[in-house]
Amino acid sequence: MVARADTTTPPHGEAPDLTDWLNAVGQGRSESERAFIGKAMDCAQSAHRQQRRASGEPYFLHCLAVAEIVHHLKLDHEAVAAAILHDVVEDTDVTLDWVRKEFGENVARLVDGVTKMGRIGEMRENSDGKHRSRPSDSESIRKLLLAMAEDVRVVLIKLADRLHNMRTLRYLSEQRQQRIARDTLEIYAPLANRLGIWQVKWELEDLALRYLDPESYHRIASLLDGRRIDRERHIELVKSRLGAAFQAAGIKAEITGRPKHIYSIWRKMQRKSIDFHEIFDVQAVRVLVDSPGDCYAVLGIVHGLWQYVPNEFDDYVANPKSNNYRSLHTAVIGPEGKAVEVQIRSHEMHDHAELGIAAHWLYKEGAHFDSGFERKVVWLRQLLEWKEEEPSADEFVDRFKSESVEERVYVLTPQGRVIDMPAGATALDFAYHIHTDVGHRCRGVKVNGRIVPLTYELRTGEQVEVLTGRQAKPSRDWINPHLGYLKTSRARAKVRHWIKLQDRDINIAAGRSALERELHRLGLSNSHLDEVAVRLNFSDVDSLMAALGRGETQTGQVVSVLMHILEPEPETAAPLLVPNRRAARKRSPDDFRVLGVGNLLTNPARCCRPVPDDPIVGYITRGRGVTIHRKDCSSVLRLKEEDRDRLIDVEWGDSPDKVFPVHICITAFDRPGLLRDVSTILANDRISMLGVSTRTNTKDMIANMDLQAEVTDIAQLSRILDRIAQLSNVIEVRRKV
Ligand code: MN
Prior knowledge:
alpha+beta, Beta Polymerase, domain 2, Ubiquitin-like (UB roll), 6 domains, six-stranded mixed beta sheet, about 15% strand
């Protein structure tokens, strides 16, 4: 049972006796765990000492109440401490670092998780509410909350927080009551259901209904109440008949009357459009037994005593629900001809049903949370099973088949709407996702209030705001896959479509300048374009340029056709890219790579003629580069001591099939880190840099970087030129011929 507000914490105003409270919550915990909780209690009390809730009671009592709910969910001492501290970072001067220092990494992580979840809720509360009616949105929010929480205890603490807030909702304005109650019903109760915590789910639902449909709530409550005497007498009769039958059969069983929840009755009335009096299973008993086998024995006895109602039997023991709920459900026409619903389950199944995911650890690990792996497994399974809950959401089910939850990111609009996008989606993708027009007019994007590049990769939980200009101005760069502006093909298609609709003249001009820029960069001439157009099936050069401008044809295609025209037989005529090695399977002595020095001129030594895979050593000669000797070469072994300084480490290069040396010129306003950024780009593409020289003009601070590298083909060259051009401060980058 989850604690009602009135179990330990007094209802209103007066503080509970803290020693009593600590004793209650410390039950079943070690001395040090109890002290840990006590310390959290002291901290929260002093941190919140100035604050009061809307009810007028000290804020600190809310912290205790939440912790008490968490305790009753049988969570560990870290979770209880985190529950006590769950509002300190957001609402007081206490920092997360301080929590980490005092209570350790785990508690800090839990508090941080709850704080972040709270911010999501706030964003929604501050929103205009216009976007919130769609059920898919609630689903996204729930998924967002789950995706954000690395540790399921965060969600449980958040649910406890919400439960206590619902219990004290009457102190808030009616408008906030409505909003919070609706969120509870749409988001938090389904979350509790997903995690299988029935007790929390029912209470959240009943409390929410009380504010959302007070009339029905009170009507059902008073009807339930009005028939209570009669019902209780009847339940007693059922219990005594069952008790006698179980005893006769030698089965140990615990029988309890079970209150039906107001919300579930209300739902049934709504769903079946029937009135209260027609709901026959308002009366219910629950039978708890020791083993699953006994469940079926009890079922047999129940069905033997009374006539069962067809279609009301469910076997969730053999077929557990997606959230692992296990129980037998049946309904019979009991004594006096009145229908009775009977639930039959073992004690263990019962704990699972009441505590949900929390019970999983209780049984598996004795309430300790040391098995991170197990937790993750359960967690993922729960996430994957989410789909069962929304059988109508076909799209979601389909999507789930092809990708897991972790391959999506959930971000929020400034209005608090959740947008669900593929992982890796950029800020610009987001703009296009909101609306095509927003994408076209996008000039900048803010993430959590900070301006970010359009290529910024979004992360779950971030709030994203698009800054738009008046006119649609998509850039042709946006569809260049090398530049990483757009990850989703849908957004790229939208940009391409927009470009296509532009004037033919504009497209011709854009195509021509794009091609010329590319040819210039790659050090190629713009001759033979007529022939290129013909080979690519265009009627003339202008049509080719227009297609380039529209993005239907890529400059890369033109370049590769041009290469074929200019270089019909790569082995003869002056080739445009000269391979510096043959595509040899066997490594030759050309394949030396000198470690740590760059590509110095190397020669195999004549004395020992090293062959690939011989252990080798380099000798720096005077003016003839490095000579490569075998390590056991006698002339190396006989070297004079003062000459040994000239020996350097070398190793056989790995021989790619074919690489081409190229010269790349970069012009940029000099800045620290520029060379590092350039070399990172090369390294990411596994390109070896053979040498680099930089000259900076101290007057205008313009740097000219001259870089030698080996590329595998012209497409790779084009790609890295694109990427280097994107670096900040770079003015121009091109191949030098
Ligand atoms: Mn709170």
